[in-house]
Amino acid sequence: MHRAGDMARVNLIEFDSYQVYCIGLEDLLIDRLNAAVHWGSREDRRWAAVMLRVYRDELDLEYLCMRACEEKVRSLLDKLW
């Protein structure tokens, strides 16, 4: 099984009696940016922009920028920022 992102950034989310593990916010953003850049997904580009706007003050910018460079999506990150 392939999992994107840093395992240390995985979050446990609880809904009623259910527990769900979700990759970190920065890794979710990288996933959206990848879809926008590499597959031309307008919807993922829109979601990336929304996430950047809503969570701007909560993001680990150093990690986000490092991952964006690794994934070759830094130019879109900079444009949406």
Topology:
Blueprint: E1 11-15, E2 18-22, H1 25-39, H2 42-55, H3 61-70, H4 74-80
Antiparallel strand pairs: 1-2
Helix pairs in contact: 1-2, 1-3
How would you portray this structure in words?
The chain has 81 residues and is an alpha+beta fold. The protein has a domain at 25-80. It has 4 helices and 2 strands; from the N terminus they run ββαααα. It has a two-stranded antiparallel ribbon with strand order 1-2. α1 packs antiparallel against α2 and α1 packs parallel to α3. The radius of gyration is 13 Å and the shape is globular.
Keywords:
alpha+beta; 2 strands; 57% helix; 12% strand; globular
Q: Measured on Cα atoms, how large is the radius of gyration?
A: 13 Å
Measured between the Cα atoms of the first and last residue, the distance is 32 Å
Please summarize the sheet with the most strands: 2 strands, antiparallel
- Order of adjacent strands in the largest pleated sheet: 1-2
Taking all residues together, what is the mean pLDDT? 91
- The best one-word shape is globular
State the order of secondary-structure elements, H for helix, E for strand: EEHHHH
Share of helical residues: 55-70%
Count, helices: 4
* DSSP strand tally: 2
**Residue share in β-strands:** 5-15%
Instruction: Point out poorly predicted stretches.
Output: none
Which structural class matches the secondary elements? alpha+beta
- Quaternary assembly: single chain
